[in-house]
Amino acid sequence: MNISSMMRRIGITAIIFVASAAATLTITPQHATAAPTRNPILFVHGWLGAAWNWQSMVSRFEAAGYSSAELRAFSYDITQSNELIAEEVKAEADALRGATGASKIDIVSHSMGGLNSRWYLKFLDGTRYVDDWVSIGGPNHGTEIAYGCFDVSCEEMRPGSGLLADLNSGDETPGGVTYGTWWSPCDEIINPDQSVLLNGAANTKTGCLGHVALLGDATVFAQVRDFVA
Predict the structure, then answer these.
(1) Domain that holds residue 210
(2) Is residue 36 part of a domain?
(3) What is the mean pLDDT of each run of 10 residues along the chain (229 residues)?
(4) Are 127 and 107 a contacting pair, CB within 8 Å?
(5) pTM of the full predicted structure?
């Protein structure tokens, strides 16, 4: 074989090799990784509270990457029954879903907000639209402090009230919602302290924190953030 023929064969072989390698490289396309999703959050305050109670926690959620549109706090008339307040919770939940396009939301509640938001879940079809539910210092089985107040909503927080009997009858954590409670052994408003705990929920004992201090505590926030993530 002369040199010219040998060079032609080498060239043909090289072209075949390069073409084959190129074909091999295009066999496996790269797939983009889907961005993580999260639910918008509705914050429900307690008796004598208002939307401003959530300023610290909302700010921390924003610092964690949530947009203001994903975080909704509202105020309601605390003197009406928790059943009526639950209708407002439903309206706010629907509005948040509509504004964000989310199919489900999370609810973070404080104190009596745990009762009216539970009513929404159990009796107003809320379990269809809520993924995670949080009760921070909620009187889920009543508090003796409520014997000293006379608004209908506060009376409903008394141990053994009709509202509590309805909420706690049968399954305390109905539907496919993930339930979580946070309770403090030093809560001066919830008595007994362990009234907050619910059967079927992830119940977390905090440090020695007061009732309102629970909302501003960095550790409680971090735990709640991870729970709803």
Answers:
(1) 41-228
(2) no
(3) 42 38 36 59 97 98 97 98 98 98 98 98 98 98 96 97 98 98 98 98 98 98 97
(4) no
(5) 0.84
